[in-house]
Structures are given as C-alpha cells and as structure tokens.
Specification:
Elements lengths: L2 H22 L3 H21 L3 H26 L3 H4 L3 H26 L10 H7 L3 H12 L1 H22 L11 H5 L3 H4 L16 H10 L1
Helix pairs in contact: 1-2, 2-3, 6-7
C-alpha cells in the first residue's frame, strides 16, 4: 500500500466518523462542526482523485459560506435540545426504513454506474478531462448536459435560504422587540407626563390616639 492509498483510507475513515457524529450529536452546534470536518475530509479525498476544482469549491462555498449560515441559524433559533429528542424512538422505525431505502438506491446507482467506458466515444467533456482541464470538463457537464438539474438545485437552495431567514425573523417571547414603525409615530405625550406638585405642604397633625399611645410607651 502506497502513501496515496493510506491517505485515502485515513480521510475516508475520518469522513465516516464525522458523518456519523453529525447524526448522533446532541448539540446542534457540535453537529454543524462535525459537518465541517466531514466537508474538509471530502475535499481532501477529491484532491487525491485529482479533482482540484471541486475540492477548492467545497472548501470555499460550503466551509466558508454555507456552514457559517448554518451556525448562524442554529444559534439564532435557540433550539431546545431536550424537547427535540422526546419523540426520537417514536419516529426511529420510519427514519430507519427511509435510510435503508436511500442506502439501497445509492448502492444500486453506484454499482450500476461502474462499467467499462473504453467502448464509449469520448465527448468534449471527456476529452477536456483527459487533457487535464477539470474546470472545462465540469463546466461542459453542468451547463450543457445537466443544466436543468443545476437550475432546480439552485431554486431549492434559494428556498432554503429564504426559509432560514424567515425562521430567524420570528418573534421570540423572551426578547423585548419594538416595532420601528411605532417608534417613528410616537408622541411626546405618550412618553412624558407632567404632574403639578405643590411646592410646600402642611405638616400632618397627629391624632389624639397616637399621642396617647406614645405617652403609654414612654
């Protein structure tokens, strides 16, 4: 086993461990940090596979922008972790079934996709990849062969961003929120009340019962 294969297994093991901890971590912030570790290991694997553009794009886009957004949303939502785990075992059978179905579908697609491509005539993307231009090959595949899936993914990401902003803008009961519209239309009479108080007041004369009680105590 050479050094490249050893690094591949090292990055793959760290990637699997980080992905497992993303699902099992109790703290959402810890889960987001484990997801950042998983992204970094995936970028390292892509570097070993000589897909430099994908690795750099993963680091810049996901680690540098998307994960910052995730952490911002998680911290702004103030999620109660204990209440989220109340129905864990109740929903576990359904979640496990969906996970197994997705794993089987991915295994079927991956195992069916590995075939001998020597008999296939290379197109422009394959020719560009063979010449060492990964960026050109990726551009041809994204904006020519898979332009509609790319557009659908962009719309889904846009909806996710709008949903995250809408969740962070919800009103919280434990915070003092003041509408700027009410601040602009406020009047001085609503905030300041002028009361007239006499400069002097006569001293209060003690009643006879108070005087008798004081004499008895003396």
């Amino acid at each position: 086993m050479d050094i490249k294969t050893g690094f591949f297994y090292l990055f793959s093991v760290l990637l699997l461990v980080a992905a497992f901890r993303v699902v099992t971590a109790r703290n959402p912030v810890h889960a987001a940090l484990y997801l950042m570790l998983a992204f970094s290991q995936a970028a390292a694997v892509w570097l070993l596979l000589e897909a430099e553009f994908l690795a750099i794009a993963l680091v810049l886009v996901y680690l540098g922008a998307v994960m910052v957004l995730f952490l911002f949303v998680v911290m702004m939502l103030d999620i109660n972790v204990e209440s989220l785990r109340d129905g864990f075992w109740k929903n576990f059978p359904l979640a496990a079934t969906v996970g197994v179905i997705i794993a089987l579908e991915m295994a079927y697609v991956l195992m069916g996709g590995f075939h001998d491509s020597s008999a296939i005539a290379p197109d422009q993307a394959l020719t560009a990849a063979a010449q060492g231009s990964n960026v050109k090959a990726l551009g041809l595949l994204m904006y020519r062969d898979y332009v509609y899936p790319i557009q659908i993914a962009a719309v889904i990401l846009l909806v996710a961003m709008i949903s995250a902003i809408a969740l962070t803008l919800r009103r919280r009961k434990d915070s003092k929120f003041i509408d700027p519209k009410d601040q602009v239309h406020v009047k001085a009479s609503d905030r300041l009340v002028v009361m007239k108080i006499a400069p002097t007041a006569p001293a209060r004369q003690p009643d006879q019962q108070s005087v008798d009680n004081a004499k008895e105590q003396a």
